[in-house]
Amino acid sequence: MLNAFKETGLKFLALSLLLIIADQFSKIWIINNLALYADINVLPIFDITYVRNYGAAFSFLSDAGGWQHYFFTGIALVISVLLIYWMYKTPVKQTWLLAAYALILSGAIGNVMDRLNYGYVVDFLHFYYQDWHFPAFNIADMAISLGAGLLILDAIFEQKNSAQSENQSAENDSPKQVKK
């Protein structure tokens, strides 16, 4: 069983676990130390502000009546199972791809834990400039966003590497011209 972790991408589950722990501890701290909507100014463009998100990203469907709680939880659980399967199947040498899977997995599980424990997602990282405000988010959201970015980078570089490999293969397969 331990070989499955060493020889497959499942060893990246350690990254997921670390991020889930950081996410959950940060949310517990927020709940225990801040009143709802209270904020702590950290920088001129950044506050720690306790808000609750009953929907998905950017509070999408937050006022849909409650069914969205089960819908988003179900989607996150299905995606989590798929990500673990893909991590198992992905060769360990594909570190960017595996890190992306681990980041997305940790974010999905972190937010599902909130939905199951509280009925909402705890958000608290709030960036703004003058009258412009970016919706508050959390460590799980950051992990999902970074994972998505890594997926895009992996796809770009994988496509570039595949094209280079094909060019090298074509050059090696082409007949050599003999000089006369």
UniProtKB/TrEMBL annotation:
Presence of keyword Cell membrane = yes
Q: Which residues form the active site?
A: 123, 141
Cite the entry's keywords alphabetically: Aspartyl protease, Cell membrane, Hydrolase, Membrane, Protease, Transmembrane, Transmembrane helix
Q: Which domain of life is it from?
A: Bacteria
The EC code for this enzyme is: 3.4.23.36
Which pathway does UniProt place it in?
Protein modification; lipoprotein biosynthesis (signal peptide cleavage)
- Mind telling me which residue stretches traverse the membrane in this protein? 67-88, 95-113, 133-157
Extract the InterPro entries matched here. Peptidase_A8
Membrane topology per record: Multi-pass membrane protein
Question: Does the keyword Lyase feature in the UniProt annotation?
Answer: no
Places the protein is found: Cell membrane
* Function, as annotated: This protein specifically catalyzes the removal of signal peptides from prolipoproteins.
Q: Per its UniProt record, what HAMAP family does this chain match?
A: LspA
Q: Which family does it belong to?
A: Belongs to the peptidase A8 family.
Name-wise, this protein is Lipoprotein signal peptidase
Gene name of the encoded protein? lspA
